[in-house]
Amino acid sequence: MRISPTAVLVVVVFAVLLFGAKRLPDAARSLGRALRVLRAEVRAPHPDASATRQAPPSAEPAAMTIKAAPGDPGPARPVAAAEPDPASRG
Q1: Which of 5, 20, 61, 68 could pair with 72 in a Cys bridge, judged by C-beta atoms 3.0 to 4.6 Å apart?
Q2: Residue 55: CA atoms inside 13 Å, Cβ hemisphere, count?
């Protein structure tokens, strides 16, 4: 993507009008610092992200809930996760 000199001139004139000639260097410095901080944050791994991705799965199976069908008046009841029958392995 190529930027024409006219576009650069329009941006500079707009920046001078918006910030004023005296405050323009400070605004440019602040923008540069903000971009550096943003780049550093994007490149560095977040300490919480690695902990959540590498968390071991729970050893206990989660309890499942069976909900009543629309015509069934019975309440929902918790059901333990199915475990394999030791006698069927042999």
Answers
A1: 68
A2: 9
What letter represents residue 1's amino acid? Answer: M
Q: Render the burial of 34-62: b for 16+ CB within 10 Å, e for the rest.
A: eeeeeeeeeeeeeeeeeeeeeeeeeeeee
Q: Do the strands 77-79 and 64-66 form a parallel or antiparallel pair, or are they unpaired?
A: antiparallel
Tokens 């610092």, residue located: 33
Under a CB-based contact definition with an 8 Å cutoff, are residues 66 and 77 in contact?
Answer: yes
Task: Give pTM, 2 decimals.
Answer: 0.39
- Distant-in-sequence, close-in-space partners of 82: CB < 8 Å, separation ≥ 6: none
* Structure token digits, residue 74: 């019975």
Strand blocks (E) in the chain = 64-66, 77-79
| pLDDT at position 37 | 94
Instruction: Give the pLDDT means over successive 10-residue stretches in the chain (90 positions).
Output: 90 88 88 93 74 55 61 58 59
